[in-house]
Amino acid sequence: MTHLDIALWGALPYIVLVVLVAGSAWRYRYDRFGFTTRSSQIHESRLLRVGGPLFHYALLFVIGGHVTGLLVPEMVTDRLDVSENSYHDVALIMGGSAGVAAVAGLAILLYRRLRVPAVRRATSGTDRAVYPLLAAAMLGGLVATASSLANPYDYRLGVSVWFRSLFDLDPDVAAMAHAPFVYRLHALLGMAMFMLWPFSRLVHALTAPVWYLARPYVVYRSRAVPYRHPAARPGDTRPTGAGRTPR
């Protein structure tokens, strides 16, 4: 274990966390209305209708797989009577499928951004840095997943142990330093992406309207419903305007 290992796996994750939190707070404070995707749908929608949902829905499964693999210890699946082979088969099939779908969606979005002149002109400098980084991180994840077929490395005994040790403020540097190169590269690309997150359009993920699922129902009432006063003559159903009381 070298000083570089300590810097990369012992100090860098906390620097990334500080930049992510402080940068997001700064962006919200000084650019609150910039928390947006900077949508370019007005310029082109055919490719966007395919690539956008494919990328975002597949990415949800990719994130779910990362959360499960990094935060759920191996002893939990053992208590649930999930064998090691079954766990890795499911992770390989579902994770690989979601990863391929996410990369395909991102490829469509990048092709659209390069192909449509108006969309290309709307691409900012940070976008030009984030998109290649995002693509490299996702491809690195696919390579790491595929490498498990030839190299039976159990990341739950290495990468996951290191990741969970960060929450204890006692990073297990050795666990990550001895991981295969593709896993370390994938982690470094991910940390680089999170450092750029607050300063790019990726920040729109923090504004996802999750609260919308729990909001109360909105009741609509028509303002032109005919009203018939009890003392009115039969057939007199003239509508009553808003704010008026019947005579």
UniProtKB/TrEMBL annotation:
Chain segments annotated as transmembrane: 6-26, 47-71, 91-111, 131-153
NarG-like domain location, by residue?
6-223
The kind of enzyme this is, by top-level EC class, is oxidoreductase
Q: Where is the signal peptide?
A: none
Topology of this chain in the membrane:
Multi-pass membrane protein
Instruction: Specify the superkingdom.
Output: Bacteria
**Which SUPFAM superfamilies is this protein grouped with?**
Respiratory nitrate reductase 1 gamma chain
Identify the EC number(s): 1.7.99.4
- Could you tell me where this protein is found in the cell? Cell membrane
Provide the primary localization: membrane
Q: Listed GO molecular functions?
A: oxidoreductase activity
Q: What UniProt keywords apply to this chain's record, in alphabetical order?
A: Cell membrane, Electron transport, Heme, Iron, Membrane, Metal-binding, Nitrate assimilation, Oxidoreductase, Transmembrane, Transmembrane helix, Transport
InterPro entries membership: Heme-iron_electron_transfer, NarG-like_domain, NarG-like_sf, Nitrate_red_gam
Which Pfam families does the entry link to?
Nitrate_red_gam
Output the NCBIfam families linked to this UniProt entry: narI
Q: What is the protein name for this chain? A: Respiratory nitrate reductase subunit gamma
